[in-house]
Amino acid sequence: xxxxxxxxxxxxxxxxxxxxxxxxxxxxxxxxxxxxxxxxxxxxxxxxxxxxxxxxxxxxxxxxxxxxxxxxxxxxxxxxxxxxxxxxxxxxxxxxxxxxxxxxxxxxxxxxxxxxxxxxxxxxxxxxxxxxxxxxxxxxxxxxxxxxxxxxxxxxxxxxxxxxxxxxxxxxxxxxxxxxxxxxxxxxxxxxxxxxxxxxxxxxxxxxxxxxxxxxxxxxxxxxxxxxxxxxxxxxxxxxxxxxxxxxxxxxxxxxxxxxxxxxxxxxxxxxxxxxxxxxxxxxxxxxxxxxxxxxxxxxxxxxxxxxxxxxxxxxxxxxxxxxxxxxxxxxxxxxxxxxxxxxxxxxxxxxxxxxxxxxxxxx
Length: 364
Known about the structure:
This protein folds into two domains: 2-177 and 349-363, Rossmann fold (3-Layer(aba) Sandwich); 191-346, Rossmann fold (3-Layer(aba) Sandwich). Helix content is 40%, strand content 18%. It has 14 helices and 13 strands. Strand 12, helix 11 and strand 13 (314-316) form a beta-alpha-beta unit. The longest helix has 29 residues, at 70-98.
């Protein structure tokens, strides 16, 4: 039986998307998984899968104070480094205690565990999900230690050419998945409502979304009763709120905060349209979720989105709010192909993702 140490975040009832990829692939048949993670003490974690031994350690869980003082930023990074090192040393301890054969990290910040794993003759794997790629894209320190990895997975096809330059091992594109037993279309009456689900960070393009929606209802009086629901939280929450007031959209755009899985499924099923406005994205789980719940979808042409929407989806360029406006109008005026959408979603189940991982593990 393969023993794997996995280091990643872990999904909770409160934040079901965080760490979901690693959680799902930990259900591999014929594998015993040692899972090192962290989450807030007031969170309720998902049920631990069969064959998984879960360890929870302290980590940093505060947002980077991008708009704070210099001293606040310095203290944040010092505390972050301290927590990364103490967390990593616990990972090294678990690697030795359980005598694992594979070490699979889901962020390059845990490179220290992978370095020791290499010293002790283990197989090293890393998966790049999104923001972590941009942190190492031109990082000299990472290029120095990149040869410790035996296998690299990338959520996005866009990262693969650069990852091949950096590493001396096989680079494989992997996907996010969807559980179609959980995310379903309730076939209920939908509101004249558009939904977006995102962390309030610059790369999510929410200002561009708000501006595009404002143009849409202003230029299309027949659709002026549509509302935009934005679920999520993050450092730009107040900035987005200010933008809504600036455009006088208080009655049209509603920021509903962080929602758990069941609440999101209900919002998807209430909404007619889902929009992904990201400037960049690894492989958007929310896009899969909305499609599975029967929303019509519009997305920016980011990373893995074209794999899902193919030639029938409504694709837009990021930072062009006029395309949000025109795409919404076009979508509402045309017949939407739900059959193609359903077939596309079925290609990206977690069972298929696990099968891809297992096949690659066998080849190392």
